[in-house]
Amino acid sequence: MKASLRASPLFQPVCLLMQEKREWSGTAKQFKELLSNQFPDAFAKWYRAPSKFVDELKRIAPELQQEGVEVRIPPEAILFTLKRMKTNTTS
Question: Burial of 66 by CB count in 10 Å (0-12 exposed, 13-18 middle, 19+ buried)?
Answer without folding.
Answer: exposed
